[in-house]
Amino acid sequence: MADLSGNVALQFPFPKINLTRKVICDSSTAQAIFAGTPMMLDANVDTVYAQQFDSAVTPTTGDAFIGIALGKLAITLGDTEGEDTEVEVMIRGIVGYPNDFSFTDANVDDPVYFSDEGTLTTTAGTNLGPVGKITHVDNSYVFIELNPIVQA
Fold first, then answer.
1. Is residue 131 part of a domain?
2. How many whole angstroms separate alpha carbon 70 and alpha carbon 74?
3. Global pTM value
4. What is the pLDDT of residue 149?
């Protein structure tokens, strides 16, 4: 995968334990946010309003993963930040992504990162995260327990 061009077919095995909230997104750049997009606070851009994490962003000290977008939102450069730039974000719980990454049961309990908007990896490097840990892998999905934290 690479940057998303549409909503991801996410799965929620335990929807009653998931914690979500609405966040206002930054409008200093245009953003195309889809369900499954990792959201962050970028210390170099805006530490108040959220932005999508994509391949154009290199995480640095002070950046924070804040969750996974649950809906689609298009933001135009210069939009007024407020209700019109809000997106629902899952901040805690377990979410399943299509397992296009060759994860196996051997990866259970591994920390997971995003290397771009649509790619999960267990390699830290210059990637966003860790965003949580792998809890379960089946033939079609990899399940991640989200744990938003400030990147070290």
1. yes
2. 13
3. 0.90
4. 60
